[in-house]
Structures are given as structure tokens and as C-alpha cells.
Design goal:
The chain has 234 residues and is mostly helical. It is built from twelve helices and no strands.
Length: 234
């Protein structure tokens, strides 16, 4: 566990620019929405900003392996006795730390806006928790595909996997199946229809996203264990 935590901390330090820019953006956009705010503007904030965080969480994980391979850092890490599943776990935990910060900032901004506008705050914490777990699931999916695909292709493959129900339903998903099998698609569906106090289905999203994260990590570790880390995937 210690190697994973150490690698996670190192990965967060390497991504400090992304962390700083997103932190400034989320704090700033929360301030912008507080100017002459109305309830509909707060809802727009809650429906739109988490989608950006979901996308960023995917983009944090996808290029990590390729960047380490090109810089030879991957070989240096593995030569120190770090197992490949630990290496992937370190990247995933690093992504989790950053997405936890982003999810907290969205919760804090939304809570402040709701208090200022007199809107209900019920369910905001649960929504932030669902956002966090789905972000980690998105990072885990991106990491899985990046073990054997070029980052650009891996991004597309992970995106299709995460929002698969929308491809077949034209954006209209069955809530039960989406929450259980495709938690990120379920969260997107919840966000676009979100209203103050909504809590229905959020616990199912949290559980299914946690399970999906573990499954993606395990499959990615099994694939990565058989890959030649000196050769870039085409």
C-alpha cells in the first residue's frame, strides 16, 4: 500500500499545473455565478460543471503511461521492485486525490450559492460523492485502455465505454440499468435532469462506480502485466 501512496503523491505533484488551473477555474466560476444569482443559474452550475470534472478526470489518467514510457520513468519505477498493478494503482490514487479536490470545490461552491439564494442544500453532499466515485471510475477506464492503446484511441474507447447507453438510446437511458452497469452514464443522466434536493439513485451510482473502478483496475493490471513496457502501443 505504501508504494501506491508514494506514487500517488508523486503523480499529484507532477500534475500540479492542472490541479492549480482547475482549482482557480472552479473557485472563479463559483464567484461568477454568485453575481446576481438566480435559482436557474445555480441549477445550471450543478448540471454543467460536474461534466467538465468528469472529462478532466479521464484526461488525467489516459496519457500517464505513455508519458512515463517516453521519459523512461516507467522503467525506472518498475526496476525498483514496484509491481505493475501497484504502478497503475498509484496513478489511479493520484487521480482520485485530484478529483476529490475538484468534487469538494463543486460542493462548496454549490452549497454557498444555495445558501445565498435560499435554495435547498439537501443531496449536495451525496451528489459530490457520486461525482467523485464516477470520476475515479472514468480515470480507471482511461487507465485500462491506455495500457494497450495509444492515448488518443484510448480516450475514445474509454468515452464510448463510459457512456455506452447513450449510443443506443439516443441520450435516453433506463435509470436502473445505467446506474448498475454504467455509473458514469447514470450520473450524466442524473445531472442533466437534476433539481434541488434530488437524491434518488445516487447511492446506487456510488456503489456501482466503486465496483466499476475496481473491475477496470483489475483488468488493466492483468493486461499491463503482459505488455512490453518499452514499446509504445500503436
Amino acid at each position: 500500500m505504501l508504494p501506491i501512496l508514494l506514487m500517488a503523491g508523486n503523480y499529484v505533484r507532477m500534475q500540479w499545473v492542472t490541479l492549480l488551473v482547475m482549482t482557480i477555474y472552479l473557485v472563479g466560476i463559483g464567484g461568477v455565478f454568485s453575481v446576481h444569482q438566480q435559482s436557474q443559474e445555480v441549477l445550471f452550475f450543478l448540471r454543467s460543471q460536474p461534466l467538465y470534472v468528469l472529462f478532466i478526470s479521464l484526461m488525467l489518467a489516459v496519457p500517464a503511461i505513455e508519458a512515463d514510457r517516453k521519459s523512461r520513468r516507467l522503467l525506472a519505477v518498475l526496476s525498483k521492485g514496484i509491481h505493475r498493478w501497484q504502478y497503475l494503482g498509484g496513478i489511479l490514487c493520484g487521480c482520485a486525490v485530484m478529483t476529490a479536490i475538484f468534487s469538494f470545490l463543486i460542493w462548496a461552491a454549490a452549497y454557498r450559492l444555495c445558501i445565498r439564494g435560499g435554495d435547498p442544500t439537501q443531496g449536495l453532499g451525496l451528489l459530490a460523492a457520486a461525482l467523485f466515485t464516477c470520476c475515479v471510475a472514468a480515470s480507471s477506464a482511461g487507465l485500462l485502455y491506455s495500457t494497450f492503446l495509444h492515448p488518443l484511441v484510448a480516450t475514445g474507447a474509454a468515452t464510448i465505454t463510459l457512456i455506452l447507453p447513450f449510443a443506443f438510446a439516443g441520450g435516453k437511458t433506463d435509470a436502473g440499468s445505467a446506474n448498475l452497469l454504467f455509473p458514469v452514464a447514470g450520473l450524466v443522466d442524473t445531472l442533466v435532469r437534476y433539481d434541488f434536493g434530488t437524491v434518488d439513485g445516487l447511492w446506487a451510482l456510488i456503489v456501482s462506480a466503486t465496483v466499476a473502478t475496481i473491475i477496470f483496475w483489475m483488468i488493466g493490471a492483468a493486461i499491463f502485466a503482459r505488455r512490453d513496457v518499452t514499446i509504445s502501443p500503436e
